[in-house]
Design brief:
With 92 residues, the chain is mainly beta. The chain has no helices and 9 strands. A 5-stranded mixed sheet has the order 2-1-3-4-7, with no helix packed on it. Strands 6-5-8-9 form a 4-stranded antiparallel sheet, with no helix packed on it. The radius of gyration is 12 Å and the shape is globular. It starts with a strand and ends with a strand.
């Protein structure tokens, strides 16, 4: 509640700093809204979301509610072992 938004990008001012090809200065953010977590893409290259048991979702200047477990891949599609893959888990 004290920090409802987590920013992701290559600028040092972001909460999560990633530095590889395809990352925008302020690439994306995760917002906590009314008990739910929403990934908001604000990048040039988009963000892939791999949610457990589903096909990958590609976001570009769009948003998607996160649920279950998965991987957020800013700027490119990735596997769980890829550098820059952000693993997440939403617990009830």
């Amino acid at each position: 509640e004290d920090h409802p938004t987590l920013t992701i990008g290559r600028l040092p001012a972001n909460d999560l700093v990633l530095r590889y090809a395809g990352i925008s200065r302020m690439h994306a953010k995760i917002e906590h809204r009314k008990g739910k977590f929403v990934l908001v893409d604000a990048s040039s290259n988009g963000t892939y979301v791999h949610i457990e048991g589903q096909e990958a979702i590609y976001l570009k200047h769009d948003e998607h509610q996160l649920h279950k477990e998965g991987i957020i891949c800013p700027g490119r599609s990735a596997t769980p072992q890829s550098p820059g893959a952000i693993h997440y888990s939403i617990r009830p």
